[in-house]
């Protein structure tokens, strides 16, 4: 992630999968086995990968969902995101809040709302060992709550998404 950040600062926007370690996350055998199970044996493909370095004091991201469908009409095909927290989470930089069962709400993907406040029924994830992964249905509403940060340095984050075959994904 540091190498990618350095390249981006220099104007080099090469594809994330060209970085060996991040590219290998797209086909990490234990995760692929879990995604195969979630997909119920139907074929699927990797949709995209993102990476970021979150610094102490970074802004949060308002409540949103990442299900890629244009227009948003149904949830007939499964899409999941795997959120990798390479440096773990310790409650100092950007907690993850998720709203269980919210994947059934049909709304535009780019709709961001309510900043990053706690909502009734939301679950806060802020204590994970380095290298942990969180798997969510891509339509689950989630947010990154801003935090002032601590002395442990930045948080390294990679997310990889997978989508079930049988429909066209943007």
What does this structure look like?
- This protein is of the alpha+beta class.
- Helices cover 14% and strands 29% of the residues.
- It contains 3 helices and 8 strands; from the N terminus they run H-H-H-E-E-E-E-E-E-E-E.
- A 4-stranded antiparallel β-sheet has the order 1-8-3-6. The protein has a 4-stranded antiparallel β-sheet with strand order 2-7-4-5, with no helix packed on it.
- The chain is globular and about 45 Å long.
- The chain starts with a helix and ends in a 6-residue tail after the last strand.
Distance between the termini: 26 Å
**Fraction in beta strands:** 25-35%
Q: Averaged pLDDT, please? A: 87
Strand order within the widest beta sheet: 1-8-3-6
Order of helices and strands: HHHEEEEEEEE
Extract low-pLDDT stretches.
Answer: none
Query: Based on the structure, what is the oligomeric state of the protein chains?
Result: single chain
Number of beta strands: 8
Structural class: alpha+beta
Q: Calculate Rg over CA atoms.
A: 16 Å
What's the tally of helices?
A: 3
Taken from the alpha-carbon principal axes, the silhouette is: globular
Largest sheet: 4 strands, antiparallel
What is the helix content?
A: 10-25%
């Amino acid at each position: 992630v540091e190498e990618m950040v350095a390249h981006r600062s220099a104007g080099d926007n090469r594809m994330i999968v060209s970085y060996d370690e991040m590219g290998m996350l797209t086909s990490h055998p234990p995760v692929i086995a879990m995604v195969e199970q979630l997909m119920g044996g139907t074929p699927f493909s990797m949709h995209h990968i993102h990476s970021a370095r979150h610094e102490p004091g970074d802004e949060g991201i308002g409540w949103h969902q990442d299900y890629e469908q244009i227009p948003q009409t149904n949830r007939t095909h499964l899409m999941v995101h795997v959120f990798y927290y390479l440096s773990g989470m310790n409650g100092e930089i950007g907690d993850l809040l998720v709203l269980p069962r919210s994947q059934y709400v049909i709304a535009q993907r780019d709709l961001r709302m309510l900043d990053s406040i706690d909502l009734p029924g939301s679950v806060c994830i802020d204590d994970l060992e380095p290298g942990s992964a969180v798997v969510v249905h891509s339509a689950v509403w989630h947010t990154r709550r801003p935090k002032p940060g601590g002395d442990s340095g930045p948080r390294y984050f990679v997310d990889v998404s997978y989508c079930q075959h049988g429909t066209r994904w943007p």
